[in-house]
Amino acid sequence: MPLCPKCKQQHLRTFEKGLGCTKECGFVIWRTIAGKKLTDAQLITLATKGITSEIKGFTSKAGKEFSAKLKLDGEMKAVFEFATKKG
Ligand SMILES: [Zn+2]
Question: How far away, in angstroms, is 22 Cα from ligand 1 center?
Fold first, then answer.
């Protein structure tokens, strides 16, 4: 497993509810985001590259389905990244 992007000392591990580092480090990405269950591969991509490719099947609070990338913000939390229209 790759190294944790936050402490850069411990190796990440996946578990049922997500992917994370040690308790002391506190880095964690929850597996279920906006009703979508992420795969281990998607979680690892997010942790190592800081951004995923577009993922389909999220559900908004209003019940609408949407697609978005996930990225890590400055506090190492998973946030949505929406495609920006060019031109
Ligand atoms: Zn860590």
Answer: 6
Model confidence over 45-67: pLDDT tens digits? 999 999 999 999 999 999 999 99
Closest by alpha carbon to 48, among 82, 69, 71, 74?
71
| Gap from CA of 51 to ligand 1 centroid (Å) | 18
**Ligand 1 mean position, distance from CA 52 (Å):** 19
Report the amino acid identity of residue 35: G
> Which has the closest alpha carbon to 55: 42, 45, 74, 64?
42
pLDDT band at 83 (very low <50, low <70, confident <90, very high): confident
Q: What is the largest CA-CA distance in the chain?
A: 45
Taking the centre of ligand 1 as the mean of its atom positions, its distance from the CA of residue 86, in whole angstroms, is 36
Give me 51's structure tokens: 């951004």
